[in-house]
Amino acid sequence: MRNTFILVKNTLKLFFRRKGNLIYILLSVLIPFVVLTMNLSGTSKLTIGVINNDTGILSKDLANSFKDSQKFEVVNIDKSNLDKYVTKGNIDFAIIFPKDFSKNVIEDKPLKVQIVSIKGKEVALAVKSYVDEYISNLKYLSISSNGDSSTFYKMYQEYEKNALIKLGEYTVKDKSVINDIMTRSVGMFIMFLMLGTSRIAELMLQEKRDKTYSRIYAAPVKSIVYALSNFIVNMIVTLFQIGLIMLLLAVFLKLPFDKSFLEIFVILVVFGISAIGLSMLIVAFSDSTAQSGGLSTLIITPSCMLGGAFWPIEVMPKVFQKVSYFMPQRWAIDAITKIEGATSSSDVLLNIFILLAFALTFILIASYKMKMSNKTADFV
Amino acid sequence: MKAVKFERLTKRFGDLVAIDNVNLEIEEGEIYGFLGPNGAGKSTAINIICGLLKIDSGKVYVMERDIKREPDFAKMNIGVVPQDIAIYGELSAYENVSFFASLYGLKGRELKESVDMALEFVGLQDKANWMANKFSGGMKRRLNIACAIAHKPKIIILDEPTVGIDPQSRNHILESVKKLNEMGSTVIYTSHYMEEVEAICTKISIIDHGKIIAEGTKEELKSIITDTNTVMITVTSVANIDENKLKAINGVKSIDIDENTVKIVSYRDVSNLDKIIHYFTSDGIAIKNIETQTPDLETVFLTLTGRKLRD
User: Fold this and answer.
1) Do B80 and A378 touch (CB under 8 A)?
2) Which of B47, B90, B105 is nearest residue A14 as measured by Cβ atoms?
3) B225, B267 in Cβ contact below 8 A?
4) pLDDT of residue A171
5) B88: nearest CB among A2, A212, A214
């Protein structure tokens, strides 16, 4: 135990004395934070394309309610042009109202409002929850009016005046935009986090190259103690990065210290453990820092792409979407999306277990490989 | 007491037998020299003593205790100075020695005193706070030694500690080795510099192809080859020398050609000098000088292994 502490202290000292490491750690936090802040302050309006097959007034009012917010612009489009609008990026998402939407609302019949989003699941979810809330309020009116349209419209006029119902929509709309930016920034942060863990794990290879590893191993220090000390150092630095970004979010973006805040922290920590596991695995299979550096780039960047760190998973082809299930990044980002969507904690638990399973698998394989390599350790 | 003992030690790397059924005993208080060319098995033997390599078969004892059963006991009693400088450039000399010494359980005042003693011993006490990457090659070598002795090991293993350093640092290191021995440590020393081994070692073993082919004091080793004579013939050019013709002369054991000098080792009981000279004159090779040589360790090594130490 004492030797673990001595090794941790020494590794931390070495890591931070090497030029660039402290700067890297700070930048890995500051860059995603600055990107997030800049995006939030300059958030442009999201454009909604409305395909209205309904002849009634309710669908028009619902679409117009988006206009009331400063965050949305509403354009009416034709269904045949939907693909063109989406591919050209003229609209961010589309709402398709079915024929007889208004009539079906009044008669309390099933409704199928379709939402097509290219901004990611979180935006679609937020818009959908807003639309659902709006419709469910109308359904109360429909039940009260017993399907009679004139009674319904009388009540509807009163409803329209009710400011309380409209208050919620601003929150929903604004949050959906913030969530999207937040998710992309988290994606960027976890990529930096992964590159940072590789840097620390690589210290083991540097020590092997410089023969100090063998000198340590010639003392009464077991190889597992050495690997554990590197893991602890990696954990300390990772916690520092996560802590710092959470602090910045709390102080500058006024993110409240609530359950969601704690859940995001836990998810990032668990993801950090799996990233450390992966970095140890890369080091275990590398003979030199050049090799591990190459492997890290080859693994981290594409897995971040596939795991949805740079763009929503939904925009990728179906095959890649399936592959993404094997990327820890996907489960971390998915958990963050769930937390932002105010999903219950039990849903996030599954993501935590999966991330821990990734970590355990990586660490076990790395330990086995390192143990085998030690059998041919060369010192003098 | 035996400081180190091998009993039928064997170590393989795949098909290669690095140590082949070796028995060895190093008495406490000796300066024991390991001589052997690269790949002879010398490094493997040292790695095994240090606990860095596992044994395939046989036993190794350090201070008469089995290293397989008590690996930490062996490690606590050994200080190793590796051939490659194994220090942290980003740490000061003091921090380097302190870190490695603390891994052996030293702490507090004992640690501080031991680090000061080790730095003073290698003559770096006035540069204790210098970063190691600011040191010259010789100073780094001395720090390399300090890191191995601060925990006061009973056995100190030095592998090629004088490679690539200036004569002043070299003399300092050789004097240090002698002093460490006088202070009670058993020293295991490997070097390519035969004169170093000859100057400081009390006992020497010659290793080749994983086996100890000769062992004893330097006098004992020289006596092994007293049945040979060495003639050094300096010629104007070695270009036309046919080694096979020379080797075919009765009694010639080995030949080594270096620049314009031909070194011919012959069995003492065979008189063949006239035939050797005849070869040179008949082949038209002009002789500039002829001298006979008394055997040194280099000759012993060449005679026993058929190659030079640095081959």
Assistant:
1) no
2) B90
3) no
4) 41
5) A212
- Across chain A, what does the average pLDDT equal? 80
Closest CA to A180 of A306, A328, A46, A59: A46
**Which chain A residue is nearest to residue B54, measuring alpha carbons?**
A375
Residues of A in contact with B85 (CB under 8 A): 211
Q: What is the separation of C-alpha A365 from the centre of its chain, rounded to a whole number of angstroms?
A: 27
Q: Is B51 on the interface with A (CB under 8 A)?
A: yes
| Coil, helix or strand at residue A51 | strand
Alpha-helical regions (H) of chain A: 2-17, 21-41, 58-67, 82-88, 101-106, 121-144, 149-161, 163-209, 212-218, 223-252, 259-284, 289-306, 318-323, 328-340, 345-374
ipTM of the predicted structure? 0.75
- Closest CA–CA distance from residue B85 to any residue of chain A (Å): 7
By CA distance, what is B145's nearest residue in A? Answer: A215
pLDDT confidence of A375, banded at 50, 70, 90? very low
Size of interface A-B (CB pairs under 8 A): 83
pLDDT tens string A81-136: 777 777 676 787 788 888 888 888 888 777 778 877 765 555 666 677 777 777 87
Q: Point out the residue among B87, B147, B159 whose CB comes nearest to the CB of A380.
A: B159
The DSSP letter of residue A98 is: P
Query: What's the 3-state SS for chain B?
Result: CEEEEEEEEEEEECCEEEEEEEEEEEECCCEEEEECCCCCCHHHHHHHHCCCCCCCEEEEEECCEECCCCHHHHHHCEEEECCCCCCCCCCEHHHHHHHHHHCCCCCHHHHHHHHHHHHHHCCCHHHCCCEHHHCCHHHHHHHHHHHHHCCCCCEEEEECCCCCCCHHHHHHHHHHHHHHHHCCCEEEEECCCHHHHHHHCCEEEEEECCEEEEEECHHHHHHHCCCEEEEEEEECCCCCCCHHHHHHCCCEEEEEEECCEEEEEEECCCCCHHHHHHHHHHCCCCEEEEEEECCCHHHHHHHHHCCCCCC
Strand order in the sheet with B2-13: B16-27, B2-13, B57-62, B65-66
Strands B203-208, B31-35: parallel, antiparallel or unpaired by DSSP? parallel
Distance (Å) from the alpha carbon of B265 to chain A's nearest alpha carbon = 33
List the single residue in A with minimal CA-CA distance to B95.
A10
pLDDT at residue B78, as a whole number:
94
Give B237-294 as a 3 state SS string: CCCCCCHHHHHHCCCEEEEEEECCEEEEEEECCCCCHHHHHHHHHHCCCCEEEEEEEC
Residue A211 touches chain B, beta carbons under 8 Å = yes
Closest CA to B265 of B310, B223, B232: B232
